[in-house]
Amino acid sequence: LPVLALAACSGTQRELTITEKVAPRPVFLLGFDGLDPGMLLQYEQRGLLPNFARLREEGAVGSIRSTVPFIPPPAWTTVSTGVLPDAHGIWSFWLPTEDDPRGRYVDATCRLAPTIWEDLSALGHTVGVVNVPVTSPPDSVNGFMIAGFPYPENAPLTFPPELEEEIRTRGYLPDEYGGAP
Q1: Residue 51's closest CA among 30, 68, 79, 20?
Q2: Is 157 exposed, middle or buried (0-12, 13-18, 19+ CB in 10 A)?
Q3: Given CA atoms 94, 95, 100, 101 in this order, what sign does their dihedral have?
Q4: What number is the average pLDDT over the span 70-85?
Q5: Helices (H), 59-145
Q6: Residue 102: is its pLDDT beyond 80?
Q7: Dihedrals φ, ψ of 30, to 5°?
């Protein structure tokens, strides 16, 4: 499950002063589930993805290894918390329950470790989080959050809650992978 993350900061080409180097700057993290980094680079080099090429040139790019098991819930939760599944507690899409042998969807309430957006919010930074797996119900953040799959029944889609009506009015549909457990 390769995941590529691009962090685009400043496109400045001049030498930065020491004050500019240590000053907090906006960071944009973009991740793709299942994207082959080699294919992405080939398409960039062929001129088919000029905006990705620009992000690579002006930002920072790194390779990461996935988690075991190689599935989105533990992988994305590891990316967002910085700890492995044994510390954050997310191992799959399903959580076994005593009353239902099929289990239920894992959700953000199962997460045992804080996320980067929770830490940044606590420090007063503004964050925006969109469609990261296992983030429903959304966390209360200093900014906004649109939760990602899976969605517990009747859970809110956004924080703040009033954002849901606005994005649905504009045509946003939650990422629904499929049926029940």
Answers
A1: 30
A2: buried
A3: positive
A4: 93
A5: 72-81, 85-88, 116-122
A6: no
A7: -120, 120
